Structure formats: C-alpha cells, structure tokens
Amino acid sequence: MRSRSRYIVGRDSQLRDIQQALTDAGEGRGRVVFLVGEAGIGKSRLAAEAVGMAFGTGMRALRGRSSTTGPTVPFRPLTEALMSLFRSGEPLDDLPLGPYRPALGRIIPDWSSDAQDNSSMVILGEAVLRLLIATGKEHGQLLLLEDLHDADPETLAVVEYLVDNLEYTNVVLLATIRTEPCDALDMADSARRRGVGTVLELAPLTRTEVCGLIAAQLDTEPELVPAEALERLWDDSAGSPFLAEELLQGMIGSGALVRSEDGWRVVGDLRSDVSTALARGILRRIDRLGPQGLTLLSAAAVIGRRFPLTVLQRMTGIDDRGLLSHLHAGVAAQLVVPDEPAPDWYAFRHSLTAEALLTQLTPANRAAMSGQAADAVQALYPDLEGDWCPLVAELRAQAGDDAEAGTLFTDAGLRALSAGAIGSAVTLLSRAERLLADSQDAAGRTVALEALLPALAEAGDFARAFSFAENMHTLVGSGLGATRLAALHTRLAKVAHTAGRWEDGNRQIAQARALLGGNPDERSTASIDVTAAYLALDTPGPDRTQLAEKLAYSGLLAAERHGLATVVCQAWELLATLARERDFDEATALLESALHTAEQHQLPLQRMYALTRIGGNNWLTEGNTAPLLHARAEALRLGSATIVHTIDGIMILDAVLRGDFATAERCAEECLAVVQRLRLAPATRYVLMARASLAAHRGERAAMDRALAAFAEWDGAGSQEEPLTRGLARAFCALMEEDRPGAVRELRAVAELESTNPSTYYLSGRYGIGLLLDVLSGAAGRPAYEEIAATAPGRMRWNRQFVHFAGAVVHGREGRPEEAGACVAEALRAAEPYATALHLGLRLIADAAFEDGWGEPVAWLRRAEQHFHQGGVADVAGACRAGLRRMGAPVHQRRTGSSRIPEVLRSQGVTVREYEVFQLLAERLGNKDIADRLYISPRTVEKHIAALGTKTGRANRAALCELSASLES
Known about the structure:
This protein has about 950 residues and is mostly helical. The protein is built from 46 helices and ten strands. Helix 7 (about 205-220) crosses helix 9, helix 17 (about 400-420) runs parallel beside helix 19 and helix 39 (about 835-850) runs antiparallel to helix 40 (about 855-870).
C-alpha cells in the first residue's frame, strides 16, 4: 500500500485556475490566488502541485510558510521565500532596486545594515515588489506563502501591497489560508470583492472523490474499495482528505482492514470517535518508534509545529544516533518532514498531528515540558537573538511563569519596535502587558506600557492607547514612583500629538508635571518639555511658536545634561524650524548641532534628517540645490524612500520656479505616480501643489484647478501646503491673467490664514510678491518695504527678487533714480534663475518707472513681452504691448495664437484679438471692463463685438455671451 495518493483528487477546477494564473503571468499579467479551506482539506497538497506546474513552465518558485512557533515572527514567510534567491547563485547586488534595496534588509539578512530602515510597510511592500520583478524578469516566478492565517501583521501588510500592485508584472502570488476568522482571510475576501485576487475555496470531497482517494492509497480500483470501509471513512472524514487518509491508516494499523489475495477486506470493528481515532492512529504509528520516539515527538509538539533538533536533543537527552534514527522513522511514517531551508529544523507534516500529540499530555506534563524546552533554548542561546526570544516567552507562558514570560515578551516587543515591525511589536507588548498585569508586576508592566503606547500610536490604534489613560489609576498605589508614572503620561501625550489631539496631550502633560511636583527630576522633564513643545505648535494661538521655542530649549538643556541623544536631536530640529523666521544662519547652526549629535551617537536616520533640513535651508536662501541633492543621495543610501520623494517634490517646485516647465511636468508625473501608489500623503500634496503652480505660471487656469481639486482630495485643507497653493498657484495665475485685484485677494487670504496660527512656510507671497503689489497700489510704502527686507523670509532668494523690485518702486517715487536702478540690478541678480518671476517683475514695475521717470521701462516691457509671447501667456504679453503704446513706443503686432481659437470660430474667420474679446464675454463684462483687461479702447471693443456678431450669426450681445459661456464650459 502506498502511504499517500499519487493523485490530487477532486481539484480539477482549481488546478485549471492555477494553470491559467501561471499562463497569464507568463504574458505579463500578474495574478493573486488564495487557496482557502479548513485544516486538512488539501491546501498544501494543491500548493505543492502548483510549484510543480510553475517549474514545468520555466518559472522560478519561491516558498515560505508562516510559523506557529511562538506568537509572532515578523516577515518569517517572506524571509524564507526570498532567501532562496540567494541560493540560486545569481548575482543580486546590481539589481535595479533604487532606494528600496536597504529597506529589504528588514527581510533579507544578507542586505541588513546598522542603519536599519524604519519606513512604512507600504515602502517595504514596494521594495519586495521590485525585487520580485527584477529577479523574475526572464521567465516570471511563483511566490508561494503557506499558512498565511498564522502570519504576523507586517507580513500581511506587505502581502496586501503586493495584492494591489501585481497586475502588470509576471509574478503569481499563491497563498494558503484556513477558513477561520483572521486578518488574512479578511484580506483575501477584500481582494476578491475588489477584483484584484482570486479566492479558490476548497470544499470537502464528495463521496465519489473520497472513494477515489482511498483507492489510490490502497493501490486498487475504486469499485474494489470495501463498501463498509468507504462508508465509515466517508462519514467520519466529512470529506477531509487528511482525515480520510489518517483514519484509513488507523484502520490498517489496527488490523480492521487487511489485504488478502482477493483484495482489501474488513475483518474488525471500524466504529470509533473521530478525534480519538485520529489521535490513537497517530500515537499508534509513533508507538512503533518506541517509548523514546513518543517522548521525542511529544517534546517537539510542545515546542510547536516547527522544532529545532538542537533544542529537542537537549530537552530529551537523546544521543545523535537515536535522535536521527527516530526522526528518519518519523519521516517514513509521514509524521514529520525536514523544514527546508533550515537544515537543523523539522516540522510536523500537519498541524493536526502536533495537536493530536498534545492530547496525550496532562496539563502538568505539558507545563513541565514547556519549562524544559525554555531552559534548553536559554542554555543553548543565552542572548535569545532573533526568533528565540518570542519562542522562549511563549514556552514560559505555557509553563505558567507569567512574570518571566511577560519580561521576555517585552524584550521581544522592544526588538520588533526598533526594527520597525510595529504590528508585531504591538502584539508582543500587548501580551507582555496582560501577563505582567496578571502577575501584579507593576514595574514590569510599566516598562511594557512605555513601549506599547507609542507603538499603538504608530499603528493608528489610538482608541486602545487612550483606554490605558482611562485605567492609569490602577497603577497608582502599586509601588511605582512618580517618575515612572510621569513617563507613562508623557508617552500618552506623545500618542495624543501623533493623533492630532492636542487638548488630550496637554492634559497628559499637566498630569505628568503634577506627579513630579515642584522639584522634578530633570531627566524626566527633558522629554516632557520637548513633547509639550511639539504639542504647543499644534495648539491654536498667536503665541504658539514662542511657547514651543521656550519649551524645546528647556528640554534641550536638560537632555544635554543627562545624555539623552534622541531627545536632543528632536529639540534641535524643532528649534531650527522655529528659528527660520528669525535668522536662517541661526537655524542652520542649530541643525548642524543636531547633525553633530547624530554623528556622535551613531544615529544615521537623525543625521539624514539634519542633512535634509540643512539642504532645504540652503535652497530657500540661495536657490542652491546641491546640498539637497547630497542629502537625497544619503537618503538613497539608507533606503529612506520617503525622504527621497520629499526632496524630489522640492526639486519639482524648483524647476517650476526656474521656468523649466518641461522638466517639472515630466518629473511631477513620474513622482506623483509613485507617491500616490505608496500613499504618501504629504509628498503627494507637495507634488500636487507644485503641479498647480506649474499650471499657474503657464497661465493655464483649468489645469491649475484640476491639480488643486486633487490636492483637496488628499486632505489639503488646513495642511502646511495650503498657503503655497494660494500664493504660488492662485495668486500667480491671476497675475498671468492680468487680474491684479484677484492676486491681491488671494494674498490677503494667505495673510489671514497665517495670522491666527503662525506657519513655518514662507514662499506663499507675504514676504515677496505681495509686498510688490501693495507698493505698486500704494497700500504700502517705505516702512513696509524696510520691515520685510529686514526679515529672514524676505531674504530668501525667491522672495528677495520681489523685495528688491518693491524697493526700486519706493526709491523711484521718492525721486531717487540711482537707488531705484541699483535695486533693479539687485532684483535681476536674485531673479537670474527664475525666468518667469524676473520678467513678471519687469512688467509690473515698468508703468511706475515710466510715471516717475526712472529706469528703462520701454526696454523692460519689450523684454517681458518677448518672454511671455514665447511662453504663450497672451494676457501678460498683450498688457506689455498696451503699456508700450501708452509710452509712445512702437509695438510689433503679433497675431500668432490662432491655434487657441476653437475650430468652429476659426472656420468663421474670427481673429486672435476678436477671440480675446469673445472669451471675456462669458463673464458678461461691459465694453469698458473688456477694454481695461485687454489694454485697448472701448471703441475698439465695440468694433470687435460687431464683427463677432456678423461672423457667428448672433444677432445681439446676449447671444454672443451665451455662445462664449457654452464654448468656455
């Protein structure tokens, strides 16, 4: 008799679906398939067949399985699957992974580094996706993840990202999941509903299929299977292939089913309780291994479905020969299998086998064996590195040692937290908190809570985090000192800051301070003050920046005295942000202090943040992008994709300001596709703001409005980027339409936004173009000019050009032509990189220069007219020509731009100037208003309207207005 069937019975439709998925992937259409069913239904068997099918098509197969050893092992199935790439002998160091390769160090030990990446699971998912694409580009590959119901949250987060983004690849993701309530099953169901994944539910076998399975095992024909045996197996297995096979093994082992010359026949009683029969059947086969074999596999079952031989041998005291002999016999009996790729590990063939073994242990025996297993692991691996710590924690919990188990779960959770495995950290620390609470270990529980609270905040589980705030009173009177309780309240304040709940955060800070009393410990107040400073910036009020600065400085001094490097870096960064409005040199000096602290204490991520902010300051003050690009290279080396894309957004805006519109458009499209796919909201908003500014600087209002609508969908209202959308986009677009009142209104809105709640963004126009427009209109004079010119934001290079233009107008009105000319020269030097702003400034000051008799207004207007004409900004070019006429200068008439005229009007002979008048009719403007907009006379407007009526066949002005409105819409 064969021990297992050579055939897969009753799964023809699922095999066809898997084959189709492999075929689709070979044609560049990636697929996601979930095999879902109860334990023993045949998921693993079908998955193994899929691997064979993939090999048959030339695809590579990567296999990994989630672990039931210990509570959670972050990324275990992904690590196992991807590590097989490194055993293939192919060179992997030159794969095109860009900034994502360092992120893979969290999964692939060969690529880990001291500067471990702590970016989001989304970025890690993108890294895994790019690795799969790069390594399977020739023939494609199958990624098989088994027992996903046991996977850790981080693995599920990466898998969910792959599910959503495999469509245009040559990769098949195949996962097996039990039909029991779990996050993996919810994910599969969601993928099915969204049409991005196929769920193949494995139903129980029919009676006919069970008969075929038994016949294959008995090496006979289905019609020769004894009817009585078939009936019992069909009833007791309920169609489960695993149960049917195990029960059949039990019948044969008990002698109830025997083989004779005439075939198989029943000679004994086949009736028994299924669970008892299953356990008895497994134990009977183990009995054949002898008492030592039973002890060995029972000890293995206590450890888990997977078990290491070194630990098993130390637990049982069996010598090498006996250990290997029993294991080989267990493999032959189909009880255990080698757990590739780890040579020292074995696994039970099915979880039901381990569960059956545990049924023969009394609770006391199981607890004792769990303690022995924990002792063995700690003796062999005293540092409990990697997976050993959560394994021993689980074993100690099974042994009933709650305090020790809680301490070990805390250690495992802290390690997961430092590695960026937030979900696993929450699971481990939550288990620690419960165990330590049950054991009434208040000090240990506090250590777990101090780590758990920020982990919950990072995971977005604010409700649960704040539930601990409601139960903080249970720790009062438990023997904890005021310092430890205050630290917990500070952690809760940080949670509140992360959640945007500044009121709750301030209350927690107040409670922390009250606990410490009038003479608090400086080491505690350092963290409290810095946390309070960040909350102060969130708290509405006109003085919030001053309060934040005071608190941050206080926390900094205390942190420096007590060597709290992380707190020091956080304080320097906040102080540098606040100092920018006062003095950029001071802000840069503060960031250099943060950089020095990070380098001294080997904090590579903090070093990168400091470099990025230093580069940003240099860009703002001098327009120099080299330090930012250096910071980007550092972020690329560390694998910080978030910082890379943030700097890319700044470079896109820089291209817009420099007038390199083609580069800005191309880079914005590329960057936006990535950051939206990664769901990086801040970077997405910044790029959309830059895209809106790009359209505005081109005078394309419709495109600007589309970008701003998308900006709003990404929670743009109230964001830090919102003032920029008004100053750099809406106000500039109004100026490109020669609508100065509209531009002023937008800039007034910026001032109103920033007056009630001070902002740290300074390119929104208040310190630049807004001053120039106010000076030109007479709303501001020398005092306002000198005040803004003396500020740090006013000295930013983008703002500085407009401040100098404003200074020129002020000097010119005061009859100081030489000083006015000097200011224009300074403005042109500052504006040299910014073509659009330079020529806009010349266009704006030309009329004032002509009226006050200074400068070269005619030359400036000719220069500006040429620029805007070539850029297709007709309104500004037309205004320049009108200004030249008023100055009595000859004007070169341009009649290009006919391509902008709709075909229906162009075919009727409508000219460019007539079309300009026609467009303004949509606003129901009078002749004088149109004349003012186009810098022509009302009489000329009247002639154009008459011509339009004749050419379009519209009898009156109202009809022309309706036609204009309909075409504009």
